[in-house]
Specification:
InterPro entries: ABC_transporter_permease (IPR051393), MetI-like (IPR000515), MetI-like_sf (IPR035906)
Strand content: under 5%
Subcellular location: Cell membrane
Radius of gyration: 24 Å
Keywords: Cell membrane, Membrane, Transmembrane, Transmembrane helix, Transport
CATH architecture: Orthogonal Bundle
CATH class: Mainly Alpha
Number of helices: 14
Shape: flat
Family: Belongs to the binding-protein-dependent transport system permease family.
Number of strands: 2
Membrane topology: Multi-pass membrane protein
């Protein structure tokens, strides 16, 4: 047995190390997704027997105005969240400079990353409070009255996304800081010899070495925008009148509060399909880019 292990350990060792993660992935992700898809084909209150309705939940979803409001808000999240990678890169370039006091400044930028999303939501709820919040103080300094952005259906989603951007930008900053610390000194030195500096150095020498980091930053940012839930739940609970709801929160609201687990599962399935399409497309882009690079 020992001899067999020694002969086969070149593949047995990595298999045994990877096996727990694979089992968890299939159990928690794939089986749960399949189960959710099955529930979406039924009318179910979460406790009693399930009633087969086929694509009835999806047909209702197609005619549900709240679904399109949630989908539109997810698109707003996605568009605004795309500011996180470039802003994270800009801050990373700033705090990566060897200037006195920069370590203290870097530690301040790390604060949003260690805070829970619930905490960030509560803090920004206070910021947006029109009576005594930070926004009210800024408007008061200019002799104006602060709007109640969390109560305005036209501005509420933008206000929530701005709050969520705070930790997301910090996360991208950390990714880019790791990438900047692994830049090739030889390439940078060669660029300086050729007279590259400033924007030319950044565009032609630094950014090409951060391609993989950028791929990760964009992927994590897009997934974060699509699965947005906690900030909406803490700050507005989808209000006012469902105007700030997103697909993940609508799924939660329909399942937990309305006891419509089949309808909630249909929303979850649509969200899963959207994310799966993006992931497949994005991975194919990465593979083609690497093949061209190779």
């Amino acid at each position: 047995m020992l001899m067999l292990w020694r002969r086969q350990r070149w593949w047995l060792t990595p298999t045994l190390l990877i096996a727990p993660a694979i089992i968890l992935f299939f159990t928690v992700i794939l089986l749960s997704a399949a189960r959710s898809l099955w529930i979406s084909l039924h009318d179910w209150d979460g406790m009693g027997p399930m009633t087969w309705v086929g694509f009835g939940n999806y047909a209702e979803l197609y005619n549900d105005p709240q679904f399109y409001t949630s989908l539109k808000n997810n698109l707003i999240w996605l568009v605004m969240f795309m500011a996180a990678p470039p802003l994270g890169l800009a801050i990373a370039l700033l705090v990566n400079q060897k200037i006195g006091g920069m370590r203290f400044l870097k530690s301040l930028f790390f604060i949003p990353l260690v805070l829970a999303s619930v905490t960030v939501g509560v803090v920004f709820t206070w910021v947006y409070t029109p009576e005594f919040g930070l926004l009210a103080l800024v408007f008061k300094a200019f002799g104006a009255t602060a709007p109640a952005v969390l109560s305005d259906e036209h501005f509420v989603t933008v206000a929530i996304v701005i709050a969520a951007l705070w930790p997301q930008i910090t996360f991208c900053m950390v990714l880019y800081l790791a990438g900047l610390n692994n830049l090739s000194e030889e390439l940078i030195g060669a660029g300086r010899v050729d007279g590259a500096k400033g924007w030319n150095m950044l565009w032609h020498i630094v950014l090409p070495q951060l391609t993989q980091v950028t791929f990760i930053a964009i992927a994590v940012t897009v997934v974060g925008a699509l699965r947005s839930f906690d900030m909406v739940s803490v700050m507005t609970r989808g209000g006012p009148f469902g105007s700030s709801s997103v697909l993940a929160y609508q799924m939660f609201e329909q399942s937990i509060f309305s006891y419509r687990f089949g309808y909630g599962a249909a929303i979850a399935s649509v969200l899963f399909v959207i994310m799966a399409i993006f992931i497949v497309w994005y991975l194919s882009r990465i593979i083609r880019t690497e093949e061209r690079g190779g």
